[in-house]
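Dear Dr. H.,

I hope your travels went smoothly. While you were away I took the liberty of generating a structure for the chain from your last submission, since the lab meeting agenda had it listed for discussion. I wanted you to have the full record in hand beforehand rather than looking at slides cold. The sequence, exactly as received, is reproduced here:
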Amino acid sequence: GEPRHCACILEIMQAVVVGSTGGVGRYVVKTLLLDPRVDKVTAIVRKRRENPDEFFHLSPQETNYLHKLSQVEADFENLDPTVFASHQIGISCLGVYTANVKNEAEFRHAEIDLNLAAANAMKQGGVTRFSYLSGQGVSQTGSMFMFARVKGEAERKLQDFGFATATVARPGGILDRGKDAVKTNWLEPILFAILPRSLGIPAEDVAKAMVRSTLVDDKNGELKKGIWEMARLKLEAAAYTAELEGIRSASKNQ
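The corresponding predicted structure, in token form, is as follows:
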């Protein structure tokens, strides 16, 4: 479907992000920090970053938004629900690449168990608006491929968790994830060099679409269990950029 323009919420929100140190997660944190509708961003991390401005891709002009950021060190195997208290928005970019796990059990633990634990802690903390970073080619109805099958199960269970809105982002060919981003495999840099950029999507646009899914008014219930494939993600990212410019312009004219 088409993005719903001018359907943004007006109340101020607080957001918590897990998987905040990955290629997309960092841009999720940045996008939330720069959004005037969000006054606090909690990044759950295994280890605090001493250079958050650089790490979360903030320009020198954007560092004044860092007062909204709180980095909270946590053990993802044993999350404390009190850390998630008073947040309305929860975004998960938690996950691993299949090349970095030994077997399906390890992949299931990283993709399903840790995400469900995070979702449970978010729900207990008051999160009602949720978004999950999945991937292109994922299926909720089963697949012969481990990636598609396991992430599909994660999607289904997260969307059944009872959040008021729970969107799934399914990007493919994620571009511009940062110079220190983990490579999915040895072919990735070669493919990115020869394929047209239009076949992929910048990490920052994935982040913008995910953030928008948690900030728009879901009048028709579409976001209760929305699944956004590549084309929709691109539309929503563009809508978010236009929406934010409108909000900032309106605030200047007040």
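Two observations you may find useful: The beta strands are 13-18, 38-45, 69-73, 89-92, 129-133, 165-169, 174-175, 201-202, 227-228. Residues 230-253 form the longest helix (24 residues).

With kind regards,
E. W.
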